[in-house]
């Protein structure tokens, strides 16, 4: 018996019809299941954990975006049960699904259901993140599975959430300004803000190999799975199950845009191509653990942060610990996390 977790109220209620279709396809593929609706304020985690703890389910399916993926994964870990996790992606960015060869379009649903029915699994690392105040006192801790970020990426997410709240009560705007349009609007606003008031920051990142100091950084990303922001591959050599993650720093919009086009050319581009036109790509840093200290910016609030596409707390110091093979993930047999 599988447990399907999804949000029937998403996409202005249209998700309910897609959940019904998914359930029909699951039954037709001989995948018996129960359904659990997602809950606000983090209760999806506890309800998933409680359901899994009954021992009734042999796998859990997360139907939704990267946020739903994260909540279901946390529920599995909270339950402490060795139960595989599957995906029916429907989100905007769909980093997790795309990283394992699963698209989120309506025409992809039948194929994704068949992947679940096949039941082929691979290990997936998880990340534990801890925040500390100026005196190194703990402020909070959480899990992430896709990425953690500081700076511009977190600013985009905050603006996206502000825009969602703004249009939520206006039906016409809610229909027109959604999904990719919300992200696009937030990115344009964030770029405009950065053009008016650029706020780079400094960071000291310590790994087992020693400290590295980054000056004039506008974004720091710690990445686990392959795809970032729905399209980018920040490090083509990265693996989601090797016990390490990649920390990718960005210095300004030129470097961010350069990385955004590196993986979308018939002839792959590399750092040397961009150096020829004056864009210096900062090398990525790979490790099993990162200690990240963000140096204070004069007259500015602490740098914004995000985990798995959602706003997280501001702090001056963070610790990231990679938990190797935290989950078993159901994926297509031919891909194993590295799309061909």
Short description:
With 340 residues, the chain is an alpha+beta fold. Helix content is 32%, strand content 31%. The protein is built from ten helices and 18 strands.
Descriptive labels:
340 residues; alpha+beta; Rossmann fold; Tumour Suppressor Smad4; 6-stranded antiparallel sheet; 10 helices; 18 strands; disordered C terminus
Question: Helical residue percent?
Answer: 25-40%
Tell me the β content: 25-35%
| Mean pLDDT over the residues | 81
CATH class of the largest domain: Mainly Beta
Low-confidence region ranges: 166-190, 264-269, 273-277, 336-340
CATH topology assignment of the largest domain: Tumour Suppressor Smad4
Gross morphology: elongated
- SS summary, helix count: 10
Instruction: Label the structural class.
Output: alpha+beta
Nearest-angstrom radius of gyration? 20 Å
Largest sheet: 6 strands, antiparallel
SSE order, one letter for each helix or strand? EHEHEHEHHEEEHHHEEEEEEHHEEEEE
Total domain units: 2
Strand arrangement, largest sheet?
Answer: 6-5-18-15-8-9
CATH architecture of the largest domain, by name, is Sandwich
What does this protein structure show overall?
- With 340 residues, the chain is an alpha+beta fold.
- The protein has 2 domains: 2-119, Rossmann fold (3-Layer(aba) Sandwich), CATH 3.40.50.10330; 127-323, Tumour Suppressor Smad4 (Sandwich).
- 32% of the residues lie in helices and 31% in strands.
- It is built from 10 helices and 18 strands.
- The protein has helices at 15-28, 43-53, 66-79, 95-99, 109-118, 152-167, 171-176, 180-196, 252-262, 271-275; strands at residues 2-6, 33-37, 59-64, 85-89, 121-132, 138-144, 147-151, 201-207, 210-217, 219-223, 227-228, 232-233, 245-250, 285-287, 289-294, 305-307, 310-312, 317-330.
- The strands form 4 sheets. A 6-stranded antiparallel beta sheet has the order 6-5-18-15-8-9, covered by helices on one side.
- Strand 8 and strand 9 (210-217) form a beta hairpin.
- Helix 2 (43-53) packs across helix 3 and helix 6 packs across helix 8.
- The protein starts with a strand and ends in a 10-residue tail after the last strand.
